């Protein structure tokens, strides 16, 4: 299989510039290991595990499935009762993880400890200004999320076609393009725009190793790029989720002047988790990207990695063949 070597693959010791997003309730051992075993970079989501000890056990399960590099996503957000982040950080270190994806808050408070233990850090950003801050505090790479992404796209509403080159022309560290990627056409486009790889969330959520219920995956296959909602817009905490009765109700309540308290029960994380576990796509709000409109099947995660790279190579060769050199003389 042909490889695409980029500064990201070389720095992080992986074969292919394809990263599996660190999705809440989805980034578990089987999925992460399958992506890594195929040569990409799989991510276990730390806070999906109830305790730091559970995270260590999940990492051990993944290591049983592959000997290739695996990363851990640690998303740090303001909370009235925050998780024990220090303990999760220590669990990551004690488990021997060498790649961490941070998201949410500024990663600076975590950099010294991670650096001391030789851990490379990818920070997830939704703007160039945040990416520049992450570079300044010493992260090894950034994952830049365009407006198309699932989850939180930020408040600038800049799509990847502009955001990716805007970031790559100002950063000197590897940039991973995220939001709107599902295949090799996207990977080829990201590389041409200056990125060093792609991060795919929704695409990997819709694979056989994903712990999400089959009916949710079938719903993604049947959906189009029009079937998402942007909730929390009036609160300036925008999130892209699947369009269903619950998310549409949330949008309506907030558009009519409602406050977060008025939708708190509708958007409870426990309800969203039941969607993934039980397969009732109307049970709560759940994250999915515009890219679901490009997803037409439920393959293995390894197949996604392999065909994404192979298609990207073919597309890059096709584009190269369009060049017509002038005839001299």
From TrEMBL:
CDD domains hit by this protein: NPD_like
GO MF annotation list: dioxygenase activity; nitronate monooxygenase activity
InterPro entries, alphabetized: Aldolase_TIM, NMO
The organism's taxonomic lineage, starting at the top: Bacteria, Bacillati, Actinomycetota, Actinomycetes, Micrococcales
Keywords per UniProt: Dioxygenase, Flavoprotein, FMN, Oxidoreductase
Name of the protein in question: 2-nitropropane dioxygenase
Domain of life: Bacteria
């Amino acid at each position: 299989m042909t490889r695409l070597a980029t500064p990201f693959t070389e720095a992080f010791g992986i074969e292919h510039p394809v990263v599996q997003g660190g999705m809440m309730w989805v980034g578990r051992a089987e999925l992460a290991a399958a992506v890594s075993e195929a040569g990409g970079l799989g991510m276990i989501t730390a806070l999906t595990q109830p305790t730091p000890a559970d995270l260590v056990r999940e990492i051990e399960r993944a290591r049983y499935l592959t000997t290739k590099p695996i990363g851990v996503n640690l998303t740090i957000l303001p909370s009235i009762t925050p998780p024990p982040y220090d303990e999760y950080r220590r669990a990551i270190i004690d488990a021997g993880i060498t790649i961490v994806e941070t998201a949410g808050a500024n990663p600076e408070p975590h950099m010294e400890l991670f650096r001391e233990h030789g851990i490379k850090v990818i920070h997830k950003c939704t703007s160039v200004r945040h990416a520049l801050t992450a570079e300044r505090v010493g992260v090894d790479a950034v994952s830049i999320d365009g407006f198309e992404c699932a989850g939180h796209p930020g408040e600038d509403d800049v799509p990847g076609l502009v955001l990716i080159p805007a970031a790559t022309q100002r950063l000197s560290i590897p940039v991973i393009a995220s939001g709107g990627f599902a295949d090799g056409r996207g990977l080829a486009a990201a590389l041409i725009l200056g990125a060093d790889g792609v991060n795919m969330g929704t695409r990997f959520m819709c694979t056989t190793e994903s712990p999400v219920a089959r009916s949710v995956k079938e719903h993604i296959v049947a959906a189009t790029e029009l079937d998402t909602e942007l909730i929390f817009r009036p609160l300036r905490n925008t999130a892209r989720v699947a369009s269903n009765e619950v998310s549409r109700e949330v949008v309506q309540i907030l558009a009519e002047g409602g406050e977060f308290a008025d939708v708190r029960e509708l958007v409870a994380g426990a309800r969203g988790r039941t969607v993934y576990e039980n397969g009732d796509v109307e049970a709560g709000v759940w994250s999915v990207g515009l890219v679901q409109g490009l997803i037409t099947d439920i393959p293995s995660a390894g197949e996604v990695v392999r065909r994404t790279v192979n298609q990207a190579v073919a597309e890059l060769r096709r584009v190269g063949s369009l060049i017509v050199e002038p005839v001299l003389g």
